[in-house]
Amino acid sequence: MNDILVLLVGSSGSGKTAIAEYLRDYHNFRILPSYTTRPRRADSKDDHIYIEEKDVEFFFNTENVVAYNKYKGNHYFATEKQCDDSDVYVVDVEGLKQLRDQYNKKIILSFYVETSPDIRIQRMRLRGDTEKEIEERLNVDKKEFAEVEKECDFTINNDYALCIATQQILAIMDKVRHENDNA
């Protein structure tokens, strides 16, 4: 089991999921698929575990939920066991704060995935978001991520090739492990 849980935080279309999938596909990371009541997107793979509203209370009564948020009426959450069994988690700012407070079995390294607005818009269009949805996300993200860099341990840029962003993450992980081994 990995001793580090990588948290990827960023605005819509920043490439968080693509980075997580690259880490999975080329570096054997296990992605944490959070639970959600959100309807599945047309382009969705297995990025979430889709549940019904009636099932949310069951999880809160039977599992140790360590990160939770509600967005547009949909629940998003992760359990302690999921964190134990995963290496990378795409999470929002509120989830990041909660994980820091409620989960301590692994070293948590949080990365703000910074991406230019033009590239984010292009990516949202490619995944099938409407212009109205894109505008809404940009407005919400402007508020939600105004001070995100203060919350995250590191900032990486994802305007270029995925391998560049992932190499930055891997290098930081190696440095942190080395520092902990020598502590």
Molecular structure report:
The chain is α/β, with parallel strands linked by helices. 45% of the residues lie in helices and 22% in strands. It contains eight helices and eight strands, in the order βαββαββαβαβαααβα. The protein has helices at residues 16-27, 56-62, 80-84, 93-102, 117-126, 131-144, 148-151, 162-181, and strands spanning 4-9, 34-36, 48-50, 65-71, 74-79, 88-90, 107-114, 154-157. The protein has a four-stranded parallel β-sheet, sandwiched between helices. A four-stranded mixed β-sheet has the order 3-2-5-4. A hairpin with a 2-residue loop joins strand 4 and strand 5. Helix 1 (16-27) crosses helix 8. It is globular, with a radius of gyration of 16 Å. The two termini are 21 Å apart. The mean pLDDT is 92.
